[in-house]
Amino acid sequence: RRRLKALRTVVAWRGRAEWDQVMVGLYCGDSRLQQEALDRVSAWKSRYGPKMPLAVDCTAELIRCKVLDSSGRLKSHELILSYGLALVRFVNLITERKQKMVSIPLRQLAKEVDIPIWVVDLRHELTHGKLPRLALCRKGCDVVLDWLRRTYWSRQLGNNLCEESEDEDEEQEGVEANAELDNDAWE
After folding, report:
1. Is residue 30 included in any domain, yes or no?
2. Of 4 and 95, which is predicted with more confidence?
3. Cα–Cα distance between 12 and 38 in angstroms, integer?
């Protein structure tokens, strides 16, 4: 039994409390707390490198856009580009692993993982068409962040973002075990 404990997955965060704090910080709506959570995610990324879960990385990029937006430092066009890059990256990364040897349309892949089709259409406009309005980019960001919260973050904590469990060791093991969730596991 001791040997099994030694084979635990190594993760970038210190423990369950840090994971919870970052998750709550990212989704709280307070720019200062969001920035602190973003700083912590940056530290995780420096420790974890390419093993960083895509959902954490995408969430951080989208929240970074919201923080920049609320700061009032960027012009509308710059915000559209910032949101656009984060949204394009999200759709591409989430659907990338589902691509087989045969090219499958993004709309079909998005439907399979329950991403709204209009988000894929927004990604298409950002990539190939005329830039959309800022309001649409903001809406896309909110929808994608909600999708990430429901599909990834809640799942890491047993579909419960707020309540603490009595057995924290088991929960920490659950967070560590799920840390390596990739796009295939999000189905």
Report:
1. yes
2. 95
3. 14
